[in-house]
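Form 7-S
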Amino acid sequence: MNLYEHTIIARQDASPSDIKQLIEKYSKIINKNEGEIVKTENWGLLNLSYLIKKNKKGSYIHFKIKCNGRVINELEKSESIDKKLLRYLTVRVKKFDLKTDYFNKKEDLEKESKK
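Output:
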């Protein structure tokens, strides 16, 4: 089994229920093809560095996945025809960093540092 970090960017006008549906949809594809989701992170609405399909912002969703390459092929094939998505990226990694939350709000980080 290989380790992958997979990020998708949904359109800026996607509602929270749309985001939840996207997470469920792609989680089902991964689980159906014998993959395992280690962690799912919703990074929220972030600015894009340049316009993508007339969008200035996008909702980021990040998956940490244990699977083989066939699962990634199925996942990307499904994502390439999805009109709600702007971009997707898959990176193979040697190990997962499960401790660090890069997109925590500053207030949350301050609370954690006081503990």
